[in-house]
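2024-03-11 09:14:02 INFO receiving multi-entity request
2024-03-11 09:14:02 INFO entity count = two
2024-03-11 09:14:03 INFO echoing inputs for audit
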Amino acid sequence: MSDAVGLFLEASVRTATPLAIAAIGEVIVERAGVINIGLEGAIIAGAFGALVGAGTGSVTLGFVTAGVAGVSIGALAGVLMAWLRTDQIVTGTAITLLGLGATGLFYRTMFGATGAGLTAPIMSPVRIPGLAEIPWAGPALFEQPLVTYGAYVLFGVAWWVLARTHTGLAIRATGESPPAAIAAGVSPSWVQGMALLFGGLCGGVAGGSLVLAQSGTFIEGMSAGRGFIAIAIVVLGRWHPAGVALAALLFGGALALQYLVQATGWEIPYQLVLAAPYILTLLVLAGVAGRSAPPAALGQSRLGEL
Amino acid sequence: MKFCSSGTEAGERREVWSAGEVGYSIRRKMRTQTLLPDGRLTALRHSMTIGLGCAAAVLALLPGLLIVAGHEPAPALAALWRGSFGSGYALLSATLVRATPLILAGLAVALAFRAGVWNIGAEGQLLAGAAAGTAAALVCGDRLGPLTPVVVVAAGAVGGALLAGGAGILRARFGVLEIISTIMLNFAALHFVGFLVRGPLQEPSGLYPQSATIMSVARLPALAPPNRLHLGLVIALFAAVALWLVLRYTEVGFRLRAVGANPVAARTAGSINVVATTLGALVASGALAGIAGASEVSGVTFALYETLSPGYGYTAIAVALLARLHPIGIVFSGIFLGALQAGGAAMQRDAGVPSVLVSIVEALLILAMAVAAARSLRPSSTIPEPLDDERRPAAEPVG
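2024-03-11 09:21:47 INFO inference complete, emitting structure
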């Protein structure tokens, strides 16, 4: 039993990693006043990019191509939402549809209808001496693939940039009041465009880690709503990097529940276990959402909207 | 306000604008908000011009897309035509059959969007409707005779409405964004249907992940046998006309449009109960999507499957936006995207082009419509006009 719990904790952190990376990008995007529903599209593009890049056998190249794929989706989102000021919900929905469709098309064109036996190299866990000796949490937190440690660093950097730098101030001002940002000499469109590029990069890397640190292969539609869960995580974490880290861990646990159920042989229908993370999202949001305030200008395509 | 050093002053100034701007804003929006046409014929014609323009532009990109994906354009496009409008069989057994759920779910999306509610959950509501319809058909058996399809469709409406109502209560009572909750419920509904067809609703032999076949008395009659077209299309057309009349001529419709255009103005100037109106719009929207699901079971598949919907609920967003949320326009955009899906299936079968190409086309259509909508809003300034010119912020911000 204790073995199962240990494995569950370790699996929770592993499945939380892509969610956390995608969510931290979305924190920056939403603090700049844009709700990017197209995150799902960036994740699936990153996953496919990782498969293409890692085909050479190099995990590093896989992450580079995943990032490039994510950034190109972010660039599309930036041109449309930040520059052309299209409606954010409509645009994001279409970008997700585009990402899922385009990766499906390229996948079948490049690897055939089934793509049978396609595998990408998987990052092996790196044990951090000392820290990994802590009971329970040690192996779960400090015996993970490198990308998970990258996520830890990313959270710290994101917090520091948002809270302590001029860049962060410009981002927050844009998200709270574009007219105030304009008055202070900040271009909201430029800030939002850059934020969307960063959000796309994070989404792409998240997709890459899905392939290169978890499944080792690409399946059409494998993002399976993680982009939307990441957005829910941002709401749950109250748009703050620390809160988002905790929320990501919670959802990693919900997704890892299926491993725990398999390991302990509980008699629960498998489909209901698969539905659990989505239901959990709703329940937790119901408990938290009303009590946290989103950035004031979130989701408004027109910069001067009241 | 945290950002600006003269924060309080700016805050007060914005209060002054907001009081004056509410009335101005609602008038301006009613006039120029192109996602919310006011239902007149001119609006329809305007919508159709833009919709047709975008559809033509995206279709013109199709040969290029095919070449990029490494396929011969000519045979693929020929297959696209053969599979959609090329023969009576293609039209009556493929295009219009696929158009039926698309029109119904498209109306569902449009109804919600017109009320300013972002229901992205038509897919889940459609599945809930299909599950509820199947359950009703299996429970009823042949006891109700020719009334059975009515019960099935009504059960579908209730199923979809319940799921959407859940999202509505989460928004009204707990402040959960319906964008997130409806998407989450899509995934939950899909897994729940997966559970149903392997558990409580599985066919008696227990071998396949599907429900038992519903009795012929529970099926919607075919309109042009032996073709697959069924009465669902008539229901869809009826729903389109009904929704248009309601939005255009009734008080409920006016309230709905007012809330969609500007909830603050609707509450303060129009004393409209915004929460009740949005909740009602979401429930009605879910009911329409649920009818789409029940009509699929009752008219096409005759059993519940996990794979019942090839993403009709997501395509429905493209259907609704392409028609610029106009109910009558949705009939045409539904047939257009139904044809594209039917033709896409033929393209995969005959020319080996993956049918996911169709979802790329749909995505491009939505993006084109979003850009068109943003462009036509352009004349209204992107910065609120201050009271006097001295205080006007710098027009060109410095990076």
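2024-03-11 09:21:48 INFO post-check: The CA atoms of residues 76 and 95 of chain A lie 8 Å apart.
2024-03-11 09:21:48 INFO post-check: Chain A touches chain B through 67 residues (CB under 8 Å).
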